[in-house]
Write a structure and sequence with these properties.
Blueprint (H helix, E strand, L loop, with lengths): L5 E4 L6 H11 L8 E6 L5 E4 L9 H5 L14 E3 L11 E4 L28 H12 L6 H17 L1 H12 L3 H27 L2 E2 L10 E8 L2 E5 L7 H12 L3 E5 L5 H9 L10 E3 L4 H8 L5 E5 L2 H12 L5 E4 L5 E4 L5 H13 L11 E4 L1 H19 L15 H10 L4 E4 L3 E2 L4 E2 L2 E4 L16 E6 L3 H9 L6 E5 L3 H9 L5 E4 L20 E2 L5 H6 L1 E8 L5 H4 L8 H11 L8
Parallel strand pairs: 8-9, 8-11, 9-10, 11-12, 13-14, 13-20, 14-19, 18-19, 20-21
Antiparallel strand pairs: 1-5, 2-3, 2-4, 6-7, 7-23, 12-22, 15-18, 16-17
Helix pairs in contact: 4-6, 5-6, 5-8, 6-7, 11-12
Length: 585
């Protein structure tokens, strides 16, 4: 894929690929210990070394001896950072003759002979390059923005199988779930942005009063500049690329930080996605919490974070140091109230599908059910019937049931199975990271399963005696990202809507509203701040700049506003500034 041979020089004067062969001859497993991330503007990035290994697997990186990061330079230049290969190690980048610009301007490595030492900031050069690209005005034209969106669309279309395979590897997602929740939804965002880009970018006229009737007043949507998108692992394509659509459409330069936990998808985003975008204005960075913390020390013009409230506080604290605006898409415990006046089988079908979709690892999934003891007795057999119909007698063998992302989350969820009493499911298999679709009853509000967002295929049922008691229960807890109410009575559903607060709300259904481009997704209070999807994402990544152009002449008309103020011009000014002033001009 590269026009010329690449190498990374390490101590000892031996080319990296030659050292790999030498190590492999001595130790057949040594190739698993070598890997390097490369960012290149021409023609494409590559991840060299064992494809099954991830940079964060290296203990040196965790101990802070360096970060695995590739920076992108001007076209034709390549930089490879290998800081952290070994304690005290040094690195430099090289390429064979003809692959580097003779002038060498604009590259991340200003001096090709310089040898980075431990403790160097691995992000500084790339962030500076992106800022310079933004300052040049490169990203502002509609043509450039459209070209980036078209490139993103091609990435989705040409790498559909690759993305499906990565999602299956990370989360055991079926091809159908990968399509409807990740690939198609993102492609819809791209298509919608391309269709409406010109209209979104157009200046919006503002109304005027008596003293600005001759002026031109409008709102201009301007890009913020350099923005950072930090994505989670549960929907590792959707939740990283949907914000990217809005950031690119708004004309920003973007740093993308995919989750290191969904390793298969992260690898695709790091290796393949940059081939489709202008890398003078776009970069992917890799790493775990330590590297992300180091990245957040830098000043960005906007930060978009999706994840837990705990990490959201860390992101917001880091942003506050630079007064950087943020969008925080967080989560919470989403209530689901089931009224006595409804069909239990219909409720079971809908609740089970939304609860166990993606193995329950969805921030807007119903987290627990509130219902009367009588409804619980009717709902349990309906849920059992639904789970069997959806996933068969042996859900573990079903191709439609996902897996828990990693062992840490599996152990956390398995511990929650000890809360209350298992009424349905409860089986688990550590070797497969499998937890059966589970329903818990006799759960107390003080138990661990009610103290944290579950984020797994476990559904507790708690008993309440009325809609009033359910509303009181919901309102004494943190505001959730979503709230659901099931009832044949529109009055009951409307009570839940009017007397509670949540990021989103659905009556008699689940979170399908997140697939709509005409409405925003966002939290409130503990579940986040800001909103996105469709035009709302474009607006999130745009500064709405108020502009007014006044004529350079007509000074006699302006003199009425200057002191000293006589009684007559005071009265005229008050009248002119009032809402009922003359509108004939």
């Amino acid at each position: 894929m590269f026009p010329s041979r690449l190498c990374s020089v390490v101590p000892g004067g031996m080319a990296l690929e030659e050292q790999d062969r030498h190590r492999a001859a001595l130790d057949p497993g040594s190739e698993k210990k070598v890997g390097v991330v490369i960012r290149t503007c021409s023609p494409a990035p590559r991840l060299l070394g064992n494809p099954e290994h991830h940079p964060n697997d290296y203990p040196i990186a965790r101990r802070g001896h360096g970060s695995w990061f590739g920076s992108c330079q001007a076209p034709g230049r390549i930089a490879v950072s290998r800081a952290g290969l070994r304690p005290g190690g040094r690195s430099r980048a090289c390429a064979s003759e003809g692959s580097m610009s003779k002038k060498g301007g604009g590259g991340a490595v200003k001096n090709p002979e310089a040898e980075p030492t431990l403790g160097m900031d691995p992000f500084q050069d790339t962030l500076q390059r992106l800022r310079e690209a933004f300052k040049s005005g490169r990203t502002r034209s509609a043509e450039f923005r459209a070209a980036q969106l078209q490139g993103l669309g091609r990435f989705l279309q040409e790498n559909k199988q690759l993305l499906q395979d990565a999602l299956a590897q990370d989360l055991h997602k079926s091809a159908f779930e990968a399509d409807v929740s990740e690939i198609i939804t993102t492609q819809n965002e791209v298509d919608y942005a391309l269709k409406n880009l010109q209209a979104w970018m157009k200046d919006e006229p503002g109304s005027t009063n008596l003293f600005t009737k001759l002026d031109s007043v409008f709102i201009r949507k301007e890009p913020f500049g350099l923005v950072l998108i930090i994505a989670p692992w549960n929907y590792p394509v959707n939740l990283v690329l949907v914000p990217l659509v809005g950031a690119l459409a708004a004309g920003n330069c973007v740093v993308l930080k995919p989750s290191e936990i969904s390793q298969g998808t992260e690898k695709v985003l790091a290796e393949v996605l940059p081939q489709y975008l202008d890398q003078s204005c776009f970069a992917v960075v890799l790493g775990g919490p330590q590297e992300t913390g180091q990245l957040l020390e830098h000043k960005f013009d906007y930060i978009f974070f999706t994840g837990s409230p705990r990490v959201g506080r860390i992101v917001m604290t880091a942003a506050a140091k630079h007064l950087t605006p943020v969008t925080l898409e967080l989560g919470g415990k989403n209530p689901c109230y089931v009224d006595d006046n409804c069909d239990p089988q219909t409720v079971a079908n809908r609740v089970a599908w939304f609860r166990y979709f993606n193995a329950g690892q969805t921030c807007v999934a119903p987290d627990y059910v509130l219902c009367s003891p009588e409804m619980q007795e009717r709902l349990l057999p309906a849920l059992q019937s639904t789970i069997t119909r959806f996933y068969g007698d042996d859900p573990q063998s079903s191709p439609n049931l996902g897996r828990i992302i990693n062992q840490k989350q599996f152990q956390r969820l398995r511990a929650l199975l000890g809360c209350g009493r298992v009424a349905i499911g409860g089986q688990s298999d550590e070797s497969d990271r499998y937890i059966a679709p589970t329903v818990l009853v006799d759960v107390q509000e003080t138990e661990p399963v009610m103290q944290e967002e579950i984020f797994g295929p476990i559904l507790p049922i708690l008993n309440v005696w009325s809609v009033d008691e359910a509303i009181e229960f919901i309102n004494r807890r943190e505001k959730p990202l979503a709230l659901y109410a099931f009832s044949n009575s529109s009055q009951v559903v409307n009570q839940m809507l009017e007397r509670t607060s949540s990021g989103g709300f659905a009556g008699n259904d689940g979170f399908l509203y997140v697939s709509l481009l005409s409405v925003p997704l966002g939290g409130v209070g503990h579940s986040g701040m800001g909103r996105y999807h469709g035009k709302f994402t474009f607006d999130t990544f745009s500064h709405h700049r108020t502009c007014m152009f006044a004529p350079s002449g007509l000074e006699k008309l302006k003199e009425i506003r200057y002191p000293p103020y006589a009684d007559w011009n005071q009265q005229l000014l008050r009248w002119g500034m009032g809402s009922k002033s003359c509108t004939l001009l």
